[in-house]
Every structure is written in C-alpha cells, then in structure tokens.
Design goal:
There is one protein chain. This protein has 207 residues and is an alpha/beta fold. The protein has a single domain (4-206), classed as Alpha-Beta Barrel (TIM Barrel). It has helices spanning 4-11, 36-41, 57-67, 80-87, 188-201; strands at 17-21, 47-52, 71-74, 92-99, 117-122, 148-150, 170-174, 180-182, 185-186, 204-206. The N and C termini lie close together (8 Å).
C-alpha cells in the first residue's frame, strides 16, 4: 500500500497486518512518498510489514525505524546470518521462499532460529508478486515446525481450499494483486469481503 486515503480506509477494517513494498523494481514500490505521520499513527494492533528484496542492511533498519515497522519480509537471497543480525536489532523477520516442484524444504533448517515466520510464495520470474498460486500439496513436505504465511495469487475462491491445510502450521494468508484496483491500491470492498470470510474461518490476513 502507498496511497494515504487508501491506507486510512484499510486501517478502518482493522486487518492484522498491512504491507508496504520497498523494492524499486516492483510496480507497488512505496518509494519516499509514504506519509510517515500516517504510518506512525496506525494502531499498534495492526502490524506493519516492510517488504524488501536483497536490500542493504542499513536501508532496511532505517526504513523500519522511519515508519515504525514491526516486521521485515525478506524476499531475496538473504542469509540466515543476515536475518539473525537484523533480528538482533529488534526487527521481526518473515523470510519468504519461492515454492515450486523442485523446492527442497531442507534449506529452511538454518533459518529457523533466526526467523519468526516463513512465507511460502509461488516460484516465478519475479521474487514475489507473480499473481499465481502454487500446488499447496507441496506443503506436505514441510516439517511444520515454524508457522508460515501462505502467499501467491490468492483470491476469494481459494478460501474454500484452506480447510485442506488445517493440519499445517498456517498462521495467515498474504493477499495482494487479486484485491487491487491498480498496483498499490486496494479494492476496499473486496478486502472487506475477504476479512469477513477469514473471520469466520478464524485466520488472519496480510495486505
């Protein structure tokens, strides 16, 4: 998200998470246009997530402090050591991984102690935001130790499939492109519908 009025409208819905992308190659790049005062005024129970891709350590830390972000969602080739050092600075860590048929879940092992959550997204040409779902059956290979966000082209019809994941340590779903009017601008009416259905299913959502 990046437009002030759109952010205000979403905050009124009281989501559990709200996301801001700080990746220059993304069409949703927030840049320096975010209203710092507005973000700092967002109620504490709504957790603010900054999305980064192979960003400089100091840039992430500066951005987190500037906007009062609670979490850094890392979508690049960040190492366990990078996650550890950032976490030691008081930043919550959500480490994203692109899932495809050949994904080896064993590579998550060294990240576990340095991350608060994992995020499983769809493998594609971009580090995220490809707008497509992956085969959720692949998650049966996951050891289920660390809670995770489910991402990748999720839309309202996909909610019917979520009960199939009830045995997994699914913390929340991460939605984006399917709930936009244009890149970076959310369709508030559709998000409201999503949240109503998610509430019935007792799951949280990230925007």
């Amino acid at each position: 998200m990046r437009e002030s009025e759109n952010i205000r409208q979403l905050v009124e819905l009281n989501p559990h998470y709200i996301g801001f992308i700080f990746y220059e190659k993304s069409p949703r790049f927030a840049g320096e246009d975010l209203d710092q005062e507005l973000l700092l005024s967002i109620p504490r129970h709504i957790k603010k997530v900054g999305v980064f891709v192979n960003s400089n350590f100091d840039y992430i830390l500066k951005t987190v402090r500037k906007y009062g972000l609670d979490w850094a969602q890392l979508h690049g080739n960040e190492t366990p050591e990078f996650c550890r050092n950032l976490r030691l600075k008081g930043v919550g860590i959500i480490k994203a991984f692109a899932i495809g048929p050949d994904f080896n879940f064993r590579q998550l092992y060294n990240f576990k102690q340095h991350c608060d959550y994992f995020l499983f997204d769809t493998q594609g040409v971009r580090p995220g935001g490809n707008g497509k779902t992956f085969d959720w059956q692949l998650l049966n290979q996951y050891d289920n130790e660390k809670p995770f966000f489910l991402s990748g082209g999720i839309d309202l019809p996909h909610l019917e499939q979520l009960p199939e994941l009830s045995e997994l340590n699914l913390h929340a779903i991460d939605v984006n492109s399917r709930f936009e009017e244009s890149p970076g601008r959310k369709d508030i009416s559709k998000v409201r519908t999503l949240m109503e259905r998610m509430s019935e299913m007792k799951l949280t959502t990230e925007k």
